[in-house]
Amino acid sequence: MNSNSLWGWFAAGIVGAATIFFGVRTFTKDEKVLDNSTEQQIALSQKQNPSRPLYGLNGLVKFNRVGLCDPRFIKVIDSLDIDWFRYPGGTNANYANWRTDSPSLRSVQLLVKATGMKIMFDLNVLTSTLDDQMEMLETADRLGIVGDGLFELGNELNQFKYEGKERFPDARAYADTCHRWIAALKKRFPKAQFAVVGENKKWKGGEDWANIQVKTNPEANLIWHFYPPGKFTHNGILDTSALKVLIHEDYVKSFGTKIPPSKVWITEFNIGDHDKDPKELLDTFATGQEKLAVKFTLKEFASMGIKMIGKHNIVGKNFAAVYADKKSAYLLPVGRAIREFMLSQKGQ
Length: 348
Prior knowledge:
Layout lengths: L2 H11 L24 H11 L5 E5 L12 H9 L4 E4 L17 H11 L2 E6 L6 H13 L7 E4 L10 H4 L3 H18 L4 E5 L11 H8 L4 E6 L6 E2 L2 E2 L1 H16 L8 E6 L19 H16 L3 E4 L10 E3 L4 E3 L1 H13 L3
Parallel strand pairs: 1-2, 1-10, 2-3, 3-4, 4-5, 5-6, 6-9, 9-10
Antiparallel strand pairs: 7-8, 11-12
Helix pairs in contact: 3-4, 7-8, 9-10, 10-11
């Protein structure tokens, strides 16, 4: 995609509002939708629409009151009908110890067997070593949960106020490390797909982050984490035009105009602002509007040509998908929106 065509795509993207309608299928928290055949589920999904994006959820479960061993929790995750689960999560992946942390690889194996979804492995390139992470993947592969391999190399290591900057003082240092890791991982997992931290930043050494990653690791995808940098509701009602503008402007800010969306993976996005944001930027949705925001955002990302799209977060605060405790587990409104969207994508 050349510069002019991408600018044309960008200009078209910020004009007008999109009207979205999705079919809704009634779901209760007691509905059973499990299928123990991992290979059959994945094959069926790809056969129905092999060109569609793969959708997933950030798998951080530290806010949860039950673990992945809980059958009710797994059942509800399965009802989302998503394609992949990000393990072990986002920021925590930069400090994860796969031998002692929760969820364990055995727990993840239970999830894969029950749901058929793939695992997006967010590797610890900050506080671990290539040898240690390779051993983790070897262990996971013996458990049958690696498949061809979806590998993400670290989380948000281009942030200025972050200890990752001590190890990766500029884009080149990170790119070179990823180059070594990818070369080694490809020897063991030749069909694996890779993604590296990809967004440009304003600090010195991060301004051309995306292009340096592409030049150093052309086979890798670039990671984009989208959190709306501005307001897109009015009196609790979703303004799709405003949200669309925020999405497309943030893309160009992150990657410029020459990197096509097909080169980008979204492993985190959300529809609300963090608690640390100023009060005037916090979004309060009227009933049902958060569901419309999730569906609109998923569809917009897909229309841009992005092939890997993941929502943050599966549990916890800030528009999580699932609630679970020792007595019950069920989909929250955002989770119901994801399920409805997924069923629409699969023609159900």
